[in-house]
Amino acid sequence: MTVSSVARPDYAAHIRAVRSSFPEVVIALREILGLKLCAYLGSVRETRAVNEWADGVREPSEAVQRRLRLALQVAGAIAEVDSAEIARAWFQGLNPQLGDRSPARLLREGDLDEVGPEVIGAERAFLVGG
Hints:
The protein is mainly α. The protein has one domain (11-127). The chain is built from eight helices and no strands. This is Antitoxin Xre/MbcA/ParS-like toxin-binding domain-containing protein.
């Protein structure tokens, strides 16, 4: 029996999000989603906080770190298949897979254990064209 070596499109993004240091997560996420969207996801009003996280000068709560790691996993997978511009639009747009709610708002305001799997499911559906 032969096992396929083709992983799901988001597997590499998951590994990157898990294995990266938190400053590396913020740097990568900032490159894909931009500074303002990163600040929104991190529940901070000033983009300076995001830059301080990237520089390792400051560290957010564990909940924010988990949220940003998940955001990198999702954004990284979309950017790899499409582009950073598409990933930004996907995060901000109303998503029919998520009850016409934006993934960014769900991640920021929802319980990550509940909304995380929903957002990942919507990302996977988007990547396969569903």
